Amino acid sequence: MNRPVITSTFCILFLCLVYACQQEPSKPLGKDDTPYLLEYGALPTPDLPADNQLTEAGVSLGRMLFYDRQLSRDNIQACADCHRQSSAFSDSLRFSLGVDNLPGTRHSMSITNMAWNTNGFFWDGRAELLRHQAILPIQDPLEMDETLDNVIQKLSSDTQYEDAFILAFGDDLVTEQRIALALEQFMLSIVSYQSKFDRYLAGLDTLTAEEERGRFLYFTEYNPFFPEDSGADCEHCHGGANFENDSYMNNGLDEEQDFSDLGRFVVTQNPMHRAQFKVPSLRNIALSQPYMHDGRFNTLEEVIDHYDHGVRFSSTVDPALLQTIDQGLGLSDEDKSALVKFLHTLTDENFINNEAYSNPF
User: Is 121 helix (H, G, I), strand (E, B) or coil?
Assistant: First the structure.
């Protein structure tokens, strides 16, 4: 007689158990070592860190951290606020503003193709590895102005990171090293290789006549004796597949008495490194204005004008620029326009719209 009541009660209990299981999914059992497939087209194979191989879980955790404002003192600023995807992971401001609205002292460098960077990080190269660079802005009083101890405490009490750290590292312990390694993995995953110029090299696109003229000028050496065949010699400093040369150089922005930032010298104390700065990649350069370490130029036209007739002499200026100080490159207005058009072919629309690099929150 009571069998229907018992059956109904059993069904209710069973449904409650199913609902509870759906509400509380099981935690990951441990680390997920699924490799992250790094796509880089025709770029050379990068030399990734052997002690921090890219995994799906590690890159995912790094992406969360990159966009998380808890890494700043008052939880209002993330790494991504000074490295915006729409600006090729640079900043449209000349000097990025920190948590106290104080400006930095150098323009925010673009985070593009860091996997091919082999000579340190920051404009002066003070960070040997990307993992070292990753945590310094967190502690900089002009940037995020937070302590790593406080960041660890915040993340440790945030339940959304529990699974993420387990999957990336095997347990949910939050440490300074793990934060740095995860950020390094995400930044290494940010790759640009699908510009119009890349398609041109692959035979999948063509350049306009003006872009082709700009390409000739870009890759041709300066030759004052044969003006008709002379180029702008941009490749001297911005060559190779990544349009840079893994060097620190003084590009003649100021004369000796006007040096206000000693650049690489601050790190090495070598007098020949005074006012030398890291040569950046020109990939997506049309998106990462303003230009130079101090953001003094707002347009590509201003940059070209500098190299055409604005180079200043000093004891550490690159020798390749010395021969143009007196007479300049001799570029016509049409030449300058063509160079700008060519530089725009280095823009990668897929890169700046890739959801894998966007805010995960």
Answer: strand
Q: Among 192, 216, 239, which residue terminates a domain?
A: 192
Q: Look at residue 224 in the predicted model and tell me its pLDDT.
A: 83
> Is the residue at 221 inside a domain?
yes
* DSSP H helices in 46-195: 56-67, 130-139, 148-156, 160-169, 176-189
Cα-only R_g, the chain: 25
Beta-bridge mates of residue 250:
317
Whole-model pTM: value is: 0.91
Q: What is the 3-state secondary structure (H, E, C) of the chain?
A: CCHHHHHHHHHHHHHHHHHHHHHCCCCCCCCCCCECCCCCCCCCCCCCCCCCCCEHHHHHHHHHHHHCHHHCCCCCCCHHHCCEHHHCCECCCCCCECCCCCECCCCCCCCCCHHHCCCCECCCCCECCHHHHHHHHHHCCCCCCCCHHHHHHHHHCCCHHHHHHHHHHCCCCCCHHHHHHHHHHHHHHCCCCCCHHHHHHCCCCCCCHHHHHHHHHHHCCCCCCCHHHCCCCHHHCCCCCCCCCCCEEECCCCCHHHCCCCECHHHHCCHHHCCEEECCCCCCHHHCCCECCCCCECCHHHHHHHHHHCCCCCCCECHHHHCCCCCCCCCCHHHHHHHHHHHHCCCCHHHHCCHHHCCCC
Inter-residue contact 169 to 178 (CB < 8 Å) = yes
Same structural domain, 276 and 335: yes
Q: Span 206-213, mean pLDDT?
A: 98
User: Which residues lie below 8 Å from residue 229, measured CB to CB, with a gap of 6+?
Assistant: 220, 223
Count of residues in the chain: 361
Q: What is the rounded CA–CA span in Å between residue 110 and residue 288?
A: 7
343 and 213 assigned to the same domain: yes
Q: What is the pLDDT of residues 184-199, one digit of tens each?
A: 999 999 999 999 999 9
Number of domains the chain is built from: 2
